[in-house]
Amino acid sequence: MHDMLRELALSISKEEKFCASHDERKGARPDGVIRRLSIQASGQEIETWKGMKKLRSFHLFATKDLDPTMNYKFLDGFKLLRVLSLEGAPIETFPDHIVTLFNLRYLSLERTRIKKVPESIGRLYNLQFLNICWTQVEALPSGIVKLRNLRFLLSNRLNNQMLTEFGDLCGTQFPKKLSTLNNLLYLGTVEANSFVIKEIRSMTQLVRLDISNVEGSHEEDLCFAIQNMPLLCLLFVKAVDEDVILPVNALQPPPRLEKLTLYGKLENIPQWFQSLQNLSYLALSWSRLTNDPLPHLEALPNLRALELVKACEEPHLDFKNGFRNLEWLAIRNFSNLQSITIAEGVMPGIKKLYIGFCGMLTEVPSGIKCLTKLQELWLINLAEDVTKRIEEPSGVDRPNVQHIKKITYIQTSSTGWWSERNLSSFFEPIPRENGFGITDISEEANPLKETKEDYSGGDSKDEIISTPALN
Predict the structure, then answer these.
(1) CA-CA-CA-CA torsion for 412, 415, 417, 422, nearest 10 degrees?
(2) How far is residue 438's CA from residue 428's CA, in Å, rounded to a whole number?
(3) Mean pLDDT score of the chain, rounded to an integer?
(4) What does the alpha-carbon distance between residue 464 and residue 411 come to, in Å, rounded to a whole number?
(5) How many helices and strands, by DSSP H and E, does the chain display?
(6) How far is CA 99 from CA 105, 106, 120, 264, 359, in A?
């Protein structure tokens, strides 16, 4: 948004008492009646904010100075609060004062450091949305099943945002009587066991299901449960171990399925893939197929995003046909991959291409010059030869990628630091029309697109960035 339009929007919002924003580095805090507040501040200032009795929505954008030991007692004064977002705050313990907010509908503690959710969470009877993704919570308390109005329950643990190892993404242990949450639409990531599998059989209202720790013995009950969810649009299934075959061959996918992630070893591409006529997003992670999966995927009519993570052991990926509507493609963690070939006319609408953690790959895909609508190329932890073929004036691949508006190379380290280099700065890109990319696709699948308001009524030089995130 243009700065002038932003200031105008903020001014009107404040005048109409719709919302206010505050950055402690840019002046005094807003006064008067405030119903919705977005704040960027340190802990010392936040603890002085009291008496906002009419506040309905509070969003905290934490600064590096935010005290991780802050007790959040100031929340006691927000008795009418319906939306609370503390995403990314350095919170190590679940703030006890949250459970006193009886009117709370929306609570997000995503990317915080909490390890446990208290039993008293059951006091938030009106809660409809709970997000504790990317935390260290291993198990949810039995009090969670008291939240009968809950519609979105999202929880998982991320040990490494690079997702370079099978165990980097983990689910959460859920209590018994989960099926009593009969208003639940989004559920995950739940760790599978015998009673959880049986509980979700009766949860036919689900729109999204993320489940991990799936074993071969779960196949019959799990497949039965999924095929009896007629509203299911998003499905994530992860095996208990990287050497365990993901038991999905007997599955009959729901007709509305739009986004599918299979995370685990596959013997072959299931026959039911040909019935996925509405699928717009597909991820095959750690499938380790011994044959080429592309012929089974190229004809999917509505596929817009495809992510292949260690999907097969083939040394060559050959995109020969199809992928007519594909707009985003990611290829990662192929340890044996030596070359990628793209035939002319294949994926004509591709806009973003990510290639990473393929150590034996020494060049950009052959045929990339034919991808005339490609706007962004991301190269992550590839051999030095790849960048040389682009950067050097006599580089072999330089003419083939000159039409791409943005080419970025990222080098990561085991400590979480990563460097970013703009390779497209070495030549003048050809003018092109703007398009849209994975942001548009991923937001459709993102439960946070159920907006919070619903609940409240480049330089060319190298940059070193202190963050483990690579989204």
Answers:
(1) -10
(2) 24
(3) 84
(4) 10
(5) 8, 22
(6) 12, 12, 7, 38, 49
Q: Tell whether the model's pLDDT for residue 190 goes beyond 80.
A: yes
Nearest C-alpha neighbor of 380 from the set 132, 164, 77: 164
Count other C-beta atoms under 10 Å from residue 322's C-beta: 19
Helix, strand, coil abundance in the chain, percent, nearest 5:
25, 25, 50
Alpha-carbon distance of 445 to 226, in angstroms, equals 18
DSSP state of 245: B
Helix (H, G, I), strand (E, B), or coil: what is residue 282?
A: strand
Reported as a pLDDT band with limits 50, 70 and 90, residue 331 is very high
As a whole number of angstroms, the distance between CA 53 and CA 139 comes to 34
Q: How far is CA 314 from CA 277, 366, 439, in A?
A: 27, 16, 30
> For residues 232 and 73, what is the distance between their CA atoms, to the nearest angstrom?
40
Beta bridge partners of 57: 36, 83
| Cis amide leading into 451 (omega within 30) | no
In this structure, are residues 54 and 76 in contact, taking their beta carbons and an 8 Å threshold?
Answer: no
pLDDT confidence of 443, banded at 50, 70, 90? very low
The answer to whether the beta carbons of residues 140 and 175 sit under 8 Å apart is: yes
CA proximity to 138, closest of 165, 166, 175, 99: 175
The separation between CA 422 and the C-alpha centre of its own chain, rounded to angstroms, equals 24
Contact criterion met (CB below 8 Å) for 311 and 289 = yes
Q: Which value, to the nearest 10 degrees, does the dihedral of the CA atoms of residues 97, 148, 19, 27 take?
A: 30
Residue among 230, 140, 128 at smallest CA distance from 186:
128
Cβ atoms of 203 and 184 closer than 8 Å = yes
Residue 83 to residue 129: CA distance in whole angstroms: 9
Residues 355 and 388: their CA atoms lie apart, in Å, by 16
CA angle 432, 357, 370 (to 5 degrees): 30
- Tokens 């953690």 found at: 357
> With contact defined as beta carbons under 8 Å apart, do 263 and 167 qualify?
no
Strands 352-356 and 376-380, bridge-based pairing:
parallel
